[in-house]
């Protein structure tokens, strides 16, 4: 009886150990019943990847990371991981290192490739690549932004230094005076605007009448324009041009001494004779006024003629 109890206890312990191993391997994505292939991948940096991390295909856990070591005489890292033997992808399938989450570290995902190459088997080294995670993307975006922000801050510091140099006591006083003057100007503009509004309100009827008068004047101008457009301006202008041409010809003849008027203007002797005749007529008229009896004789009994005397020129 004593041995039977010990055998039962031993069987229970062994069963618990087997169940623990089965459950542990199940949680790790492996199975004691299925054979696994050991595969390799080489990376430049595996920060965040840990031994025991799951290996997935399209999110399904199919293996785990067994070891991480340096390649001999190199800084590259050799990652050893196990994969279920029933996976029949090509040996050209890619082992991609990706960020599983913000705080979940990194994992390996197998990107299946189906080509004419043979299937995966024990000891194969898969092509590797690294997928930038959210942290890497943020770092790539933040770094240029940080540089720009530093540049802006530097320029802002320079600007504030210049402003501080300008805004000394005298500059502050001038700025205050300028702002006061500007405030007074704005108040005057507001007052002027109010006055203008009152004026426009009181003269609204007058403005309306003025606009109506302007409208009437515009209509009259339109009518005059229509009348001028209908008139024979072309013929009038042609006649005016003809008259101007004849006048030019007449003036040219006068200037060249043609005709009586031209000879009068161009012949100096004729002008002098005409001037002398005019003077003699003038003297005759003066003498006629002074001595009319010399020229008109009327007597009933007869009278001797008075001898003629040349009048004196005044």
Describe the structure.
Helices cover 56% and strands 15% of the residues. With 314 residues, it is of the alpha/beta class. Among the domains are: 1-33; 36-131, no CATH class; 134-164. The chain has a seven-stranded mixed beta sheet, with no helix packed on it. Strand 3 (60-70) and strand 4 (77-84) form a beta hairpin. Helix 5 (233-256) packs across helix 6. The longest helix has 34 residues, at 169-202. The N and C termini lie far apart (193 Å). The mean pLDDT is 80.
Write a short abstract of this structure.
The chain is built from seven helices and seven strands. With 314 residues, it is of the alpha/beta class.
Task: Describe this protein with a few key phrases.
314 residues; alpha/beta; 7-stranded mixed β-sheet; 7 helices; 15% strand
């Amino acid at each position: 009886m004593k041995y039977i109890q010990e055998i039962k206890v031993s069987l229970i312990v062994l069963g618990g150990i087997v169940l623990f191993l089965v459950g542990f391997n199940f949680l790790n994505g492996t199975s004691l019943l299925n054979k696994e292939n050991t595969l390799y991948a080489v990376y430049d940096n595996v920060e965040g990847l840990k031994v025991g991390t799951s290996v997935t295909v399209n999110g399904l856990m199919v293996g785990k990371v067994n070891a991480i070591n340096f390649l001999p005489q190199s800084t590259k890292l050799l990652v050893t991981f196990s994969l279920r033997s029933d996976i029949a992808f090509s040996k050209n399938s890619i082992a991609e290192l990706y960020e599983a989450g913000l705080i979940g570290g990194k994992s390996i995902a197998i990107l299946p490739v189906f080509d004419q190459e043979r299937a995966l088997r024990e000891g194969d080294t898969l092509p590797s690549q690294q997928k930038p995670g959210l942290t890497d993307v943020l770092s790539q975006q933040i770094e240029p932004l940080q540089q720009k922000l530093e540049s802006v801050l530097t320029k802002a510091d320079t600007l504030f230094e210049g402003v501080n140099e300008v805004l000394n006591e005298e500059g502050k006083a001038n700025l205050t005076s300028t702002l006061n003057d500007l405030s007074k100007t704005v108040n005057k503009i507001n007052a002027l605007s109010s006055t203008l509004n009152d004026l426009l309100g009181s003269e609204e009827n007058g403005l309306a009448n003025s606009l109506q008068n302007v409208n009437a004047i515009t209509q009259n101008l339109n009518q005059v324009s229509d009348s001028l457009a209908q008139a024979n301006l072309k013929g009038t202008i042609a006649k005016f041009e003809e008259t101007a041409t004849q006048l030019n010809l007449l003036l040219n003849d006068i200037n060249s001494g043609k005709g009586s008027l031209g000879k009068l203007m161009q012949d100096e002797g004729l002008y002098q004779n005409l001037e002398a005749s005019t003077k003699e007529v003038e003297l005759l008229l003066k003498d006629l006024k002074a001595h009319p009896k010399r020229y008109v004789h009327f007597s009933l009994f007869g009278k001797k003629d008075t001898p003629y005397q040349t009048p004196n020129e005044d």
